[in-house]
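Worked problem 6 (solution included).
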Amino acid sequence: ADVQFGLQDIGFEYCTPIQQQALPILLTGKDLAGKAQTGTGKTAAFLLTAFTHILNHPKTDRAPGSCRVLVLAPTRELAIQIHKDAEEIGKFTGLYNVVVFGGMDHEKQREELDRPVDILIGTPGRIIDYSRSRHLDLSADEILVIDEADRMLDMGFIPDVRRIVAQLPKREERQTMLFSATLDESILKLAASFQNNPEMVESEIGRAHV
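Solution. The predicted structure is:
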């Protein structure tokens, strides 16, 4: 119910096509590769799944610097936007969401990892920084979201993403979502290497057309 209050608060009334297609799959815990542009409502789809999972599966004895959901974004702008959406949708849940990215106060962001994190959003370079310095422990992550995978590829971040994924539980033991504006062969190969038998969904339609 807590997530619904957050949704009502931001005026979220109907599902966009990507949400209609993705949510029934995601809420069963299956992996998903989604073709969706920014602005189609994909962020809400993966955040709703994350919040629902966390609230339905309470955990105690979690380590500082561990996270239950990891969202990788190619740019700090996108990371900040996803965090803002998470704070709005989850404002009545009491969950602890953190965003980390390069070019920002390293120490201040690091201090936010001094307790267990529910949803961690970040750019690959900064996530690697904190995991190398042992401030971040990714071994208990339950959900991985790779957002704008096509841009990750274009910007040369895939080796970093692979390094991060190698620290997570095995693909059979986590839920992995990948979103991309295109699902061409290189993206599908990527999906196959990170995901466990993912369902494919495509949505060309943004919010404006609903």
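Discussion: Residues 206-210 have pLDDT under 50 and may be disordered.
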